[in-house]
C-alpha cells in the first residue's frame, strides 16, 4: 500500500488504485468495473440532511460478508477494554502508562482509563492508553462501537485502512470512524505510545467559526484523507471486531483491505496539530479554552458538545494587566487532559508529565499549581512564547467513571492535591 493523500474535511472524495475501477456516474453498468463488488458503507442514517450525510461506496475484490462467524475474545476483552464503573469527585492525575510491555500489537496494547456513555446510548466516550511495538500481521480490527481518535505521544505508526494508508507521527492525530476496518503497525522499529478517545456520539466535525471568520483554528485543507490502496492477499486472516464493549474474532480467507476504488464522504483522516491556527487575546484577559477546539462531536443540546477535542499548542502570550496561565476554574463539563510533550504552563512544579493524564470531573476545582501561580503573578508582562509543548483535552458534558486499571497504586498519583496546598493568604481587608 502506497502512502498518498487527498486534502479537505467533509469533502466528497473519489479515488482509485487501478485505472477504470471507479464507475463514473450512477448510470453505470449492471456489473461493477474490473469484476469488483460494490458495497456502501454508511456512517449516518440514510435520511440525515445532505450536509451531514456520511457514506462511501467501496469497490472491492470480495464483499465484506465473506468471513466466518464471530466468536467472543473474552480474555483479550478483559485485558484491554476495561469497564468504567467508579465515580470519584476528586481531582486525579496519572503517571505514564504502567502497562508498557513492548511485546504486543495495537489491540493487545489498549488499556481503558475512564469513560462515560456507551455505543448503545449513542453518547459519551471512553479514553484509552495504548502501547505497542509489534505489527498486527494477519490481524485486522473493526470497531462498531465508536470512532477512534488516536493521539500519538511517542513512535511513528502506519494506519492501514480499507480506504488506504495513513502514516502518523507525534504531533499528528488520526481518526478512524466506526465500522471501518484497519490495522495499526509501528514504523522504524519504534515503540508507540499514546491516547485514544473513543467517541460513541455524533461524528466529529470541525467547529463553526462565527466572528472568527474563515481562517482560524483547524483549516479544512490540512486534514488528509488516504487515496485508494489495496491488498489482494489470500490465506488465513483474523478480523477482530468490537461490539457493545466486547471483542470478537472471525476467521477470513483474505485480507479485508481489498478496496480497489472508493468515493464518498465517510473516511479516515489525519491532522497535524502543529498547523492549528491558535486564536488568543492581543489585549487583556482570557478567551475561554474552547477557542482551542480542533474537533467536536455535537450533542442534542445546541452549544453543548458530546465531546470537544481541545489542544494547548505553542503560542504567543501578550496579554497586559492579566494573569496569563489558565485561571482557577470550576466547570459543568468534565475534563480529561493528556500531555504529548513539554511542560503545561499551569503545572510547572512537576507531576503532569508526557504520557500522563489528569481528570477534573464536573465542578471539580482546578487551576495553576502554587509554583505556576507565584511565578506568573510577579513576572514582567512582556511578550512571551510558550514553546516546545503540546497538551490536549477531551471535554465531555457528563462525568467520567474510572476503571479498576485507573485506580492502580503507583499509576494514580495519590498526592495530586498537594500541588495546591501551599497557597498563602494575601487578603488585606
Considering the chains and any ligands shown, give keywords for the structure.
429 residues; mainly beta; Jelly Rolls; seven-stranded mixed beta sheet; 2 helices; 4% helix; 38% strand; globular
Short recap of the structure:
The chain is mostly beta strands and 429 residues long. β21 (293-298) and β22 (305-312) form a beta hairpin. The protein contains two helices and 28 strands.
Indicate the CATH topology of the largest domain.
Jelly Rolls
Q: Note poorly predicted spans.
A: none
Largest sheet: 9 strands, antiparallel
Spatial arrangement of strands, main beta sheet:
1-16-20-13-10-15-8-7-28
Q: Write the CATH homologous superfamily of the largest domain.
A: Jelly Rolls
Shape: globular
Proportion of residues in helical segments:
under 10%
Approximate strand percentage: 35-45%
Total number of strands: 28
* Discrete helix count: 2
Whole-number count of domains: 2
CATH architecture of the largest domain: Sandwich
Q: Supply the CATH class of the largest domain.
A: Mainly Beta
**N- to C-terminal distance:** 70 Å
Structural class call reads mainly beta
Question: How much is the radius of gyration in Å?
Answer: 23 Å
* Global mean pLDDT: 95
Q: What is the element string, with H for helices and E for strands?
A: EEEEEHEEEEEEEEEEEEEEEEEEEEHEEE
